[in-house]
Each structure stands twice: as structure tokens, then as C-alpha cells.
Amino acid sequence: MSVDPRNAPAEGLRYALNFRTLAKEEKMMNIMKRLWKEEEGQDLLEYALLIVLVVLVAAAAINPLGQAIANVYTSANTCIGGGACVGT
């Protein structure tokens, strides 16, 4: 099968782009295989999962904690302003 000379640059460009894509995929696959085999990759994954867990717990605690702090400041403001002090 011969390539039409008028399409040769386009065919070469398609080959080059396909080669670059395959090279990137091969590099990524090699990195993933190496991380799967090496313990450093597993440790890294464990630390990442631990960080995600800490962030999720912190995000879940922010709203109730913020509301509790707001209630304390509101109560203090009412008390200072001459209103009825609650809890004294």
C-alpha cells in the first residue's frame, strides 16, 4: 500500500501525533506499574487517603462548630448590651 505523495505530510503528521500519544500513555502506564510494585507508592497512597479523611472530617465539623461559636458571641453581645444573660 503506497501513500499518495500529496498526502505524505499529513500521514507523517498523523504518525507523529499518534506516536507522541502512545509515548505519553506508555510513560503513564510505566509510572502506574512502578507505583503499584514499589512500597513508596503504596505509602504515598495511604498518606493521600489519610489527608482526604482528615479534610472530610474537618469539613463536616466546620458548620456545627461555626454555629456554636456564633451562639457564644451572640450571647456575649446580648449580655454586654444589657440584655438577659443566659447561663449565668
Q: Quick summary of this structure?
A:
By secondary structure, the protein is an all-alpha fold.
Weakly predicted, low-confidence segments = none
Helix count from the secondary structure assignment: 2
Distance between the termini: 94 Å
Which percent bin holds the helix content? over 70%
Tally of discrete structural domains:
2
Coarse shape: elongated
| Biggest pleated-sheet summary | none
H/E element sequence: HH
Structural class of the helix and strand makeup? mainly alpha
**Count of distinct strands:** 0
Q: DSSP strand (E) fraction?
A: under 5%
Cα gyration radius (Å) = 31 Å
Overall average residue pLDDT? 77
List the helices and strands and how they pair.
Blueprint (H helix, E strand, L loop, with lengths): L7 H30 L1 H42 L8
Q: How would you characterize this protein structure?
A:
The chain folds into 2 domains: 7-37; 39-83. 82% of the residues lie in helices and 0% in strands. It starts with 7 loop residues before the first helix and ends in an 8-residue tail after the last helix. The protein is an all-alpha fold and 88 residues long. The mean pLDDT is 77.
Key structural traits:
2 domains, about 80% helix, about 90 residues, about 0% strand, mainly alpha, 2 helices
